[in-house]
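Before any further analysis, we paired sequence with structure tokens, yielding the entry below:
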Amino acid sequence: MSRLPGWLSRLGTGVARAGERLEERRVRAEEAEGLDEPRPRSAEPADTPEPLPAVAKSPDGEAGSGASVPAPPAYAPAIAARPDPVAAVPWGIRVAAEVGWRLLVLAGALWVLMRAISSVQLVVFAFVAALLITALLQPTVSRLKRLGLPRGLATAVTFIAGFVIMGLVGWFVVWQVMENTDDLSNQVQRGIDELEKWLLDSPFHVTGDEINDIAKNLREAIGTNTEELTSAGLAGVTVMVEILTGILLAMFSTLFLLYDGKRIWRWTLKLVPASARPGVAGAGPRAWRTLTAYVRGTVIVALIDAVFIGIGIYFLDVPMAVPLAVFIFLFAFIPLVGAVISGALAVVVALVTQGVFTALMALVVVLAVQQIEGHVLQPFILGRAVRVHPLAVVLSVAAGGMVAGIGGAVVAVPLVAVTNTVVGYLRTHAQDNALQQAAAASAPEPAAGPQGDRA
């Protein structure tokens, strides 16, 4: 028991020395990390004890001096934080991505719309034809109403007269074609014989056997494709049924548009969001005026083309001059392309029936009338309201023809003209609203009156 106090004294001394060594290590670690100078132990508050650094232990549980992770030195360069991935993308690429996904959404919506239209293509074409016919007949209804006729009577008179005239024109074309078919076939046969003689005497060294082989191949091709021709004839019957159905739909739609067009337009406006309703309400009448001016101008220009080209080929003794003039009138509703097709048809008929000289003279007549139409009639009759750039006309007609055939080519240009009018008005309307809001925001508040000053 006499040795116990000495042992306790040595144990206390060892614990004290171990604590001093731990404190020295903590101080060196804080200095290496760039921290403030450590305060003396006596000055440390009792309620905020300084945390000791984590010390790794050896497997036997004792603290080891070489197991702790050293801190980086003070002179080591700082490691910059990684930037935000959005900030790392260049501005141009971000703008292109934003525009790109919006264009993809619009393209998808347009594709869905086109698929929906193609599934009810007959109804859509019938309604569009009704819109065009209504744009042509609506001024007559308004004029009859100003003369004192009731709305129903004015609509009925205009509707019956318009469709009777269109029916007579169609019957006249069919009658002329049926009357002149035999004469035309005989003249075509004579033209083919003359062409065969010219090929035999031409410098191309074409022999009679080669011409006979070509004729034999044509006959064999017609004989082997009899089934295809028969199926085409059956398909033609189906097409005729669809055409009659479309004509009936167009007639009923035209009747209701002429009689109740304003009420239908007001109902359509209720489907538009309230915030966009004022702009759409203002753009609608302007679009209708553009469509009306386009249809009336196109009818007048087509009528002038048909009359003058028909007179020219009539004096050149080209057969079926009147039906060809009617075809020229109908094809004039397809801008640029229709004039080329109808003029080429007249020239080909003149070539086959009357020879090369007559065909050249017919070509001169067609080109002269079309030049007068393009440079004088269209700018004067159609005006600037429906003027569309020729490149836009060509591209729209080509796109409409690829999407929906002849009907799409007919509708393409008036659709582009109406869209141009609507977009222009909406842009002007938005600018006017922005200017009015800016003026209202910058206007000074009204000064208080005498009573407000006394108060």
The chain has 13 helices and no strands. The radius of gyration is 45 Å. Confidence is low (pLDDT under 50) at residues 40-66.
